[in-house]
Specification:
The structure holds two protein chains of two kinds.
Chain A: H1 2-33, H2 40-77, H3 79-84, H4 101-116, H5 119-131, H6 138-162, H7 166-183, H8 189-198, H9 204-218, H10 224-227, H11 231-267
Chain B: H1 2-33, H2 41-80, H3 83-99, H4 102-117, H5 125-156, H6 160-177, H7 180-192, H8 198-212, H9 218-222, H10 225-243
Helix pairs in contact in B: 1-2, 2-8, 3-5, 4-5, 4-7, 5-8, 5-10, 6-10, 7-10
Amino acid sequence: MDIIDAIIAVTLSTVSDVFPIAAIIFGFQFAVLRQKPANLRGILFGFFWVLIGLSLFLLGLEWALFPLGRVMAGQLTDPAFIQTALAAHETAADIEWSDYYWVYIFAFMIGFSTTIAEPSLIAVAIKANDVSGGAIGVWGLRIAVAIGVAVGISLGCYRIVVGDPIHWYIIAGYVVVVIQTSFAPKLIIPLAYDSGGVTTSTVTVPLVAALGLGLSETVPGRNPLIDGFGLIAFASLFPIMSVMAYAQLSDARAALGRRRADAETTTK
Amino acid sequence: MTNTLKRLLGAMLGSLRDLLPILLVIVFFQFVVLQQPLPDIGKILTGVVFVVLGLTFFIHGLEQGLFPIGESMATAFARKGSLFWLIAFAFALGFGTTVAEPALIAVAAEAAAVAAQGNMIESSEAAREDYANGLRYTVAFSVGLAIVIGVIRILKGWPVQWIIMGGYVLVVIMTLFAPIEIIGIAYDSGGVTTSTITVPLVTALGVGLASSIRGRNPMIDGFGLIALASLTPMIFVMAYGMMI
């Protein structure tokens, strides 16, 4: 019975999240636009599937991934675990930023893998693939964004460990984004900017927040209320760079291919 | 019937493949690095099955419901030609989808705790709740405003990078003046406002608008709304922190 109760509770809370959105959409549709959208039945069924899907998804995350993820974040940042990596003559006072290497590896891998599973990124990738007529691959975009998130979260963890102020990192990131923007192919720029905001929702935020909180609680001299934040900001900034880099790389490869083809035709 | 079943099965395999990396990471860290057994394996397996089913249904509903309604409304607004109603809709969509967002409610509560600790507000329950609610409405307003700016930008065909870079400059300037406690939260609030349902809807709206207005390229003009919606909350949260 527990399972059914839990499903009902989660579905109700999803309904209350979706309700304002549905009210706005259908309110404008019928009061302002005053027309029936084509295939209304299909759309209503679509909303129904979104509700059921999101509820099951959240419930499954709550049961399977989040508890494990939180426990792991806690264990990996535990001073007792960090000390096992130290040499015999070192004590807790000798812990350096590099002794947290498992944390950085975990941050990278969990950032990558949760981004691959992020539903809103899948949605944007499907749309971008559609609109670009297949030029932007669904998987290419998703992997580019996932690498960006992975790098961002690892760097964010390093920042929490060493205790640097966050704004220098973010400002430096902005500078890189601005420089890349002037060289990147025009078509990719809006999509790259969007992918920054898309990455951090249902799956990534709770796990990443747990990691940040765990780190700032156990690293000496960090205040969880101040240093625990900021990982999400890193995870939204770095995909912008990685998506533009992905477009620049595919452009460069295409240009190289063309030059080779030209060279072959001229030598013949 | 067999066809539908086959498609469903294919979609489920796709979802499983999307989730496989997370499972691998967790198994690797649990058994190889931390060397601990998995607690309550039955519940975890049930959870994984739910996640796979949920992702499959969500993607199906996305293609059946959210994308078509977003695009059909964008086209209908473009045909109606009423700027007022389009902007009212854009604001309502941004504000309405953000104000009830659970991630935002959680972040606002944490921000209130930070503010109380930093002696920016009184440390009473009522003062914290006031602060958290004020912050929530501020962020929701800023997202509504972002969608409005984004829609106007699509209509006018302005390049998105100039608006974003202007926003970056504003963020940097405000960082210098904002209280240090609020900066981390402000930067994070940009990422948490865009939820799983908002993103497909807003993307469909942008692409739909750009494709139904002549001279606009859906790739260049259609995307960019989410970027704006993740930028304005940073500015407004810092402003909120400075004023209170």
